[in-house]
Design brief:
With 300 residues, the chain is of the alpha+beta class. 32% of the residues lie in helices and 20% in strands. The strands form 3 sheets. Strands 4, 5, 7, 10, 11 and 12 form a 6-stranded antiparallel sheet that branches. A hairpin with a 2-residue loop joins strand 10 and strand 11. The chain starts with 15 loop residues before the first helix and ends with a strand.
């Protein structure tokens, strides 16, 4: 019975570095011997046989070393350079460590808890300070409980003989009474004012009393220009009055009066007729002053 022999499986393709190492081993050379013959650094040969082409620099230097070393160990240099060029043309695998990540936004709700904690701590500290400040000896609450020295005679007979008053410490709630012998000092006098109250000056009372206003009445038989000013130089009348009219003004005296036609005006002060002084008449007009007493005098 014939046994059929299965065909051998094809060998797996070798890398560029493995083919170079196999060629060197067939030649019976070590890495150091090959480097000496090619006048290269042993690290260059080790990088070529390990497929670490990035250690040799740019691609143009890699292709040059690869072709020269392949021809030296008996491998097809052009084929190996083509394999390297096809491998170099492929894009490198992505570096997952350089993948950008989305920026995380800060959650504003995380700030609420620290702010609430700080607010509670501030309120607690303020409450503690308020309690401590209220219990200090110098605070207003504690000052009300301190004794208040009040000078009061302990015994009327003793104080009368010695003339020295005995101080008695009383609390703020103890009423302070006046000595019996001095009760008459605060009694009201005949005018209704107590001894502790100062008497009012008669001049100050008169100054506080509002000044009486003077009433001036002008009865016109002819047209006349009229000006009337009070004691503060305020205009009470400033116009032309027609014949047959009666002009009445009131103001704080003395009043200063200017008439354009004195002969056609009759003057009456507080209900009494007054004659214009002859010294106040200048031509047809007149300038005079109505005093507080009601008399008329020439204006200066």
């Amino acid at each position: 019975m014939d046994e059929t022999v299965a065909p051998a499986a094809p060998a797996a393709p070798r890398s560029i570095g493995e083919r170079l190492r196999a060629g060197r081993e067939r030649s019976g050379l070590s890495i150091a011997a090959a480097a000496e013959k090619l006048h290269l650094d042993a690290k260059v040969i080790e990088a070529l046989e390990a497929d670490r082409f990035t250690e040799l620099g740019a691609s143009v230097y890699v292709r040059g070393h690869l072709r020269r070393y392949a021809d030296f160990v008996g491998e097809p240099g052009a084929e190996l350079v083509s394999s390297y060029s096809a491998r170099d043309a492929r894009p490198p695998p992505p570096d997952l460590t350089q993948v950008p990540h989305a920026e995380r936004r800060a959650d504003p709700r995380r700030l609420v808890t620290p702010l609430v904690g700080l607010s509670c701590a501030a309120v607690l500290l303020l409450a503690i300070w308020w309690v401590l400040a209220g219990s200090r000896p110098g605070s207003p609450d504690s000052a009300s409980a301190l004794p208040i020295p009040v000078v009061q005679p302990a015994d009327p007979a003793t104080s009368a003989s010695s003339g020295v008053a005995t101080p008695v410490a009383l609390s703020s709630s103890t009423p302070v009474t006046s000595p019996p012998g001095k009760a008459s000092a605060a009694a009201p006098g005949a005018n209704g004012a107590t001894a502790s109250q100062p008497k009012r000056d008669a001049g100050s009372e008169a100054s506080q009393t509002p000044a009486r206003e003077t009433r001036l009445k002008l009865d016109l038989t002819n047209d006349s220009w009229i000006e009337v000013y009070d004691s503060r130089d305020k205009k009470l009348f400033y116009d032309v009055a027609s014949a047959g009219s009666v002009q009445t003004v009131s103001g704080r005296g003395p009043l200063r009066v200017v008439l354009g036609n004195a002969a056609g005006v009759t003057v009456e002060v507080d209900g009494q007729t007054r004659d214009i002084p002859a010294s106040a008449i200048d031509g047809e007009g007149a300038r005079f002053v109505v005093n507080r007493s009601g008399s008329l005098a020439r204006a200066r």
